[in-house]
Design brief:
This protein is α+β, with helices and mostly antiparallel strands. It has 2 domains: 60 residues, no CATH class; 88 residues, no CATH class. Helix content is 42%, strand content 18%. It is built from 5 helices and 5 strands. The strands form 2 sheets. It has a 3-stranded antiparallel sheet. It has a two-stranded antiparallel sheet with strand order 4-5. Helix 2 runs antiparallel to helix 3 and helix 3 runs antiparallel to helix 5.
Length: 184
């Protein structure tokens, strides 16, 4: 198909470089976990850029030619994948309370968002850290406990990312109902 409506001088509606710059990790974290996340980010970024700059005929894994609508959906999936990685890089925990109706005890729960396959944010990860009266010390949650929750939720997010984009892992649920990879 030959397009007569296309002009190379057009300014793009979707500016890839600007979009990526806005989603660039703020700082380089260190450690084995972060090395894996950064490596994945760089690989996905390179793959996405190569895809967008390709001038060859684009086909799926069965050699069927993709339509412009299919290609649009692939671009959106790459954007969602990068957004998920950015949620890991820029973790935001939200503190909420659950109340046991029988005992009226308030439990502190930390939550984090994920992105569904439509690109919409959803509350997905949670960690109950205990009864408020047993957790709070001098009016605050101890920093070491917050760090433990942060590390736990980061691992949950990474597991979910792996589950979303690789299908060769056995999964199960933890005590808070989060989807996790089961270690062999």
């Amino acid at each position: 198909m030959k397009l007569t409506e296309y002009d190379k001088k057009w300014k793009p509606i979707f500016d890839l470089e600007k979009w990526l710059e806005e989603r660039k990790p703020k700082k380089k974290q260190s450690g084995a976990f972060w090395d894996d996340v950064h490596l994945e980010y760089e690989e996905v970024l390179q793959e996405f850029k190569s895809f967008l700059q390709s001038t060859e005929k684009i086909t799926d894994s069965h050699d069927a030619t993709l339509t412009p609508f299919d290609i649009y959906n692939v671009v959106e999936r790459y954007k969602i994948r990068i957004e998920k990685l950015m949620l890991i890089f820029d973790l935001k925990l939200y503190k909420t309370y659950n109340i046991n109706r029988k005992t009226d005890v308030r439990y502190i729960v930390f939550r984090a968002f994920w992105i569904d396959h439509f690109g919409k944010p959803m509350r997905y990860f949670s960690r109950n850290i205990g009864a408020e009266n047993k957790v709070i010390s001098n009016g605050i949650i101890p920093p070491h406990l917050k760090k433990e929750v942060e590390n736990y939720i980061l691992q949950l997010m990474w597991d979910q990312y792996i589950i979303d984009y690789n299908d060769n892992y056995e999964t199960g649920y933890d005590e808070d109902g989060n989807n996790v990879i089961i270690d062999d």
